[in-house]
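This part of the workshop introduces the protein records we will be handling. A record pairs a protein's sequence with a compact description of its fold. Comparing a sequence with its tokens is the quickest way to learn the format. The record below serves as our worked example for the rest of this section:
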Amino acid sequence: MASGAIGTVTRGTTNTNRLRRVDRWVTAQPVLRRTRDPLVVDLGYGASGVTALELHQRLAKARPDVEVVGLEIEPGRVRTADEQLAAVRAGRTGFDPAARIRFALGGFEVPLPEGRKAAVIRAFNVLRQYDESEVAGAWERMLARLQPGGLLVEGTCDEIGRIASWVALDPTGPLSLTVSLRLHGLDAPSIVAERLPKALIHRNVPGERVHTFLTELDRLWRIHSPLAAYGPSQRWIAVAQGMRDAGWPVLGGRTRWRLGELTVAWPAVSPA
């Protein structure tokens, strides 16, 4: 562990394009366009710095002056990422050699120079190995490192990025839960249960709100199966609209639903 860094070394598993779903969602968030200091942190990027490089590449489409800082508490991973970045600077990869990106040692304390704070902190596949009781403390530390109006995005995905979910938080606390799924070949939306954020993954049991949420998604997915003839996106749009019509606090609309996303306000799924 790095001196002063708060956290535990994770397995470091990562893959190219694994975090495309959450990156796409972050790119659409208003904070990225409004902030005067477009500093984004990729916390716990793992054994390779590729997710931070991809994050910059995607966010730069919405905010060309975005700056990404990749943080890891294992020094060897920082060295590996720096070597990857050197290859980028030398033009030996497909990434922009002029990208504003760097790697550093750090954990949940999110060390940033000159008193700067992040507009967005993305912490993905980091808390899976922790106890649920440790989540609130980790959230609190990261939230303290956000700019006013900043956003923490904490979640989990499978190894190839086809199943993902995340909690969005601002300095006041949790705001929403998003599930994002590859719709082609999807049997049931509740497959996301095994990739829920740590705050919810053990709560998928009768009597908990998130269990009710996933049960209703599955029910509507079955009901709208005839729409599969028009493509899985049309089927998912009908599911999302059905959730909204049933009174679920669904955020966003068809633009996001077409991507296999569904976002609900946090109180609808928070632990009972």
